[in-house]
Amino acid sequence: MRNYFILILLLLVSITGFCQDLNAKVIVNAQLTGDENIQVFKTLEKQLNEFVNNSNWSNKDIKPQERINCNFVINITEYSNTFFSGSIQVQSSRPIFGSSYTSSLYNMNDKDFSFEYTEFQVMQFTPNQYQNNLVSVMAFHIYMVLGLDADSFSPEGGNDYFKQAQQIVNYSQQENYSGWKLSDGLQSRFKLIDDLLSPVFSDYRTILYNYHRLGLDIMNENIKEGKAQLVNALTLFNNIANKRPNAYVTRVFFDTKADEIEQVFSSGPSVDVDKLLTVLNRIAPMYSAKWRNLQF
User: 0.90 exceeded by the pTM?
Assistant: First the structure.
């Protein structure tokens, strides 16, 4: 009988392990407050790590090696009692087939981040119900991470995740926190998910799939063909620029990918990048110093 219960316990532990979607590291940095060593920041960091890593965000069985690597760095600039404000930097990556290389998928600096937190408060995400702004912001970015990862493996594979992110935006508007409304500007959570799900930006999600699955993932077998596919994918940004110049999703993409694009096209087999250079300098001129390193 004792062995039976041990077996059941091991099975439950195994099943739980397969339910985790993310391999995340959450850091709470409170240096700018001058009180970074107080216990509340350490407790918040520990609770957020548990909340992000131990929750089943997709309702899928995920093997440990399939978990998405991501980082959340919360920079606290001010706090008073239970109110905290600052920013959150979110980064995620996905492995490239046949190599040890990982490609950045999401690099987002969300500056409109404030929340209330009482030490040891319960953190629980409910898909269709507002809990608090801390949970909403974390969950929004988690579903962005999941959606972008899924889009990079299959055409529009991230639909369900992006729709959940949009639902979080919709119900989080009831509280007076920044980033959730159309009136919060052109670089808000509202704007980011609204663009991603808009037919106007359908080329963007095509780019995500073609760039990663048809480009980077085949470079282990055929570098030149992979680079040619990257050129084809990136030139689609011209279509987006024709419809929506200076789109926020375009900025987010190149904040994430500029270093990688420079690295890929500054060495190895040459491909014709003349058209690509024209597009890159048009839509991402802030990275023109990197584009000068691209080789024909």
Answer: yes
